[in-house]
Amino acid sequence: MSQILKQKIKVALIQLAGSSADKLANLDRAKTFVEKALLEQPDTKLVVLPECFNSPYAVDKFREYSEILSSESTSVKVLSELARRFKIYLVGGSIPELDPQTDKIYNTALVFDEAGKLIDTHRKAHLFDVAIPNGITFQESATLSGGEKSTTVDTKYGKIGVGICYDMRFPELAMISARKDAFAMIYPSAFNTVTGPMHWHLLARSRAIDNQLYVILCSPARNMESAYKAYGHSLVVNPRGDIIAEAGEGEEIIYAELDPEDIAAFREAVPVTKQRRFDIYSDISK
Ligand SMILES: NC(=O)CC(=O)C(=O)O
């Protein structure tokens, strides 16, 4: 049996309604839905929220909604209390973060342990700067800065890799976490109605197959009134590349069980993890 995931665990993905202009209302909604998940499936051990769940996903709003991370910051307090109360690992989606040393704004995922401790953060490393003709133009770099590290977090069940949305287009982050023995890559995300149909499922399945681990994407629900129309379709892919849970477009919670046996069985059947040729591609940046 694979040791990288120590036991079966249940995950819940909370596909929250697209965030309103009211940060406290957004946080309250997240709280209500985490409570609902734990009421429906009390054996849930890991809960994931979407990208920018407490603020509008809009370049000109990130600074206004940003928080300096500390135990006193509004969002940290709410998420920490939820993780502690329900004894869950919580990947608290992402929020706009202000770094007081540099005055830079980041799109940052927060990871809490079962005691409510903020155990790691991931600042979106690859910013969503695209211009798709007749599709969508978005430029996160107009107000955000990119993070400087890949993120692999230790939990009592094993390691998880964390990226945010556009980060999933860059296989390197997932590979780094996989090489460190992560059992899952988790991406709080917000694809849209242009790029979602093109690439959402393909990218999730590709990262899972590349690395033979679970891939978890948690999106906001779609809101056709909002300027940014999130794709929805939060999903969980197993190490074989099968989608084992998928949301629709509306607000909902989906659940999946992650099983160490699934990782072990597929890695044994198709042993790419043992067949890699690091002698050929030890440093592909050159
Ligand atoms: N919103 C993102 O960061 C990424 C996205 O929508 C895409 O890659 O497509």
Automatic annotation (TrEMBL):
**Which CDD domains does this chain map to?**
nit (cd07572)
Domain (CN hydrolase): residue spans on this chain: 9-260
SUPFAM superfamilies in the cross-refs: Carbon-nitrogen hydrolase (SSF56317)
Q: Does the keyword Hydrolase apply?
A: yes
Among Pfam families, the record links this protein to: CN_hydrolase
Keywords recorded for this protein, A-Z? Hydrolase
Q: Which GO terms describe its cellular component?
A: mitochondrion
Give the record's GO biological process terms: amide catabolic process; asparagine metabolic process; glutamine metabolic process; oxaloacetate metabolic process
- InterPro entries in UniProt: C-N_Hydrolase, C-N_Hydrolase_sf, Nit1/2_C-N_Hydrolase, UPF0012_CS
Q: Which GO terms describe its molecular function?
A: omega-amidase activity
Transferase as UniProt keyword: no
* UniProt-listed PROSITE patterns: CN_HYDROLASE, UPF0012
PANTHER family for the chain: NITRILASE-RELATED (PTHR23088), OMEGA-AMIDASE NIT2 (PTHR23088:SF30)
Stated name of the protein: CN hydrolase domain-containing protein
In its UniProt entry, the species of origin is given as: Tetrapisispora phaffii (strain ATCC 24235 / CBS 4417 / NBRC 1672 / NRRL Y-8282 / UCD 70-5)
Q: What is the lineage of its organism?
A: Eukaryota, Fungi, Dikarya, Ascomycota, Saccharomycotina
